[in-house]
Specification:
Elements (H helix, E strand, L loop, with lengths): L1 H9 L16 H15 L12 E3 L2 E3 L17 E3 L1 E4 L1 E3 L7 E3 L5 E7 L17 H16 L8 E8 L1 H5 L9 H13 L6 H14 L1 E6 H11 L1 H18 L11
Parallel strand pairs: 7-8, 8-9
Antiparallel strand pairs: 1-4, 2-3, 4-7, 5-6
Helix pairs in contact: 2-8, 3-5, 3-6, 5-6, 7-8
Length: about 260
């Protein structure tokens, strides 16, 4: 069976593909491949990896704003993290959910993008964008384990995207501490005092310690290539396929003459 799976994946961009090539060539698989190398080698200058860290893709991060009751008009669901690096367990209290280890020193959440933007909000808070939501979840993960952010060696939220997208300023207005604090503060205010202690005791100290970063795929791949030219070349080829299959279509130019 594994041979058939491998054969189908290899054929993903060929003439006999049985599914869209974006099932394989996408930001999620690109990030998994990079994190697999990064955590094993522990030598990137762009994404920190502390001793004994591991990684996981599609972890569920708990929110401080989970529904308080059925039909809560303020509530939101767990957040799916494209990638997480640190010391943690998965499935501690539910399938896919992340719980920090008692001795954790790192919690880094990484969002992978190709040509899409960060999501603008959740159903019950349209302004609560993906950067603010992830930062709030990092604070809640720490609170759940009662680990003070000041004692962590590495806390971060990072967006990895094509350098051309970063240069366009697609993310920079959102991935700032000012933007994140303003939106989390507004979210907390909706609870009329119920979340004030969490905001003061956990969120603000976490944000103060958190590193925010925008990292280009190309820069990460250059680090891989500098360490291992063969793997670097393979990842570069995979990345080019991701770019090719995920690039937005070029609008046709209509001659009105």
């Amino acid at each position: 069976m594994w041979e058939r799976v491998t054969a189908m994946l290899r054929a993903a961009e060929g003439p006999v593909s049985r599914f869209p090539p974006t099932v394989l060539y996408n930001e999620n698989w690109m990030l998994r491949l990079v994190l697999d190398w990064l955590v094993e080698r522990r030598m990137s200058s762009l994404i920190q990896v502390t001793p004994n860290s591991t990684w996981y893709s599609e972890a569920l991060l708990p929110s401080a704003f989970l529904p308080r009751w059925r039909g809560d008009t303020l509530g939101e669901s767990y957040t799916h993290a494209d990638g997480v690096v640190g010391q943690f367990e998965i499935g501690g209290s539910g399938k896919g959910d992340l719980v920090l280890s008692p001795e954790a020193t790192q919690l880094s959440v990484i969002e992978g993008k190709m040509f899409s933007r960060l999501s603008k909000g959740v159903k019950n808070a349209r302004y609560f964008d993906q950067a603010a939501r992830n930062a709030a979840c990092v604070a809640e993960v720490l609170r759940a384990r009662q680990l003070k952010p000041q004692g962590m060696e590495a806390l971060s939220f990072c967006v990895v995207a094509p350098e051309a997208q970063i240069a366009k300023g697609v993310f920079e207005d959102l991935v700032t501490k000012e933007s994140i604090e303003r939106k989390v503060r507004a979210r907390v205010a909706e609870y009329e005092g119920e979340k004030d202690a969490w905001f003061e005791d956990w969120f603000l100290p976490t944000l103060a310690e958190m590193k925010l970063a925008l990292v280009g795929w190309e820069a990460l791949l250059a680090e891989v290539a500098a360490d291992d030219a063969t793997v670097g070349g393979q990842l570069a080829d995979f990345y080019q396929s991701c770019v090719r299959f995920n690039s937005p279509p070029t609008r046709a130019v209509v001659d009105s003459s």
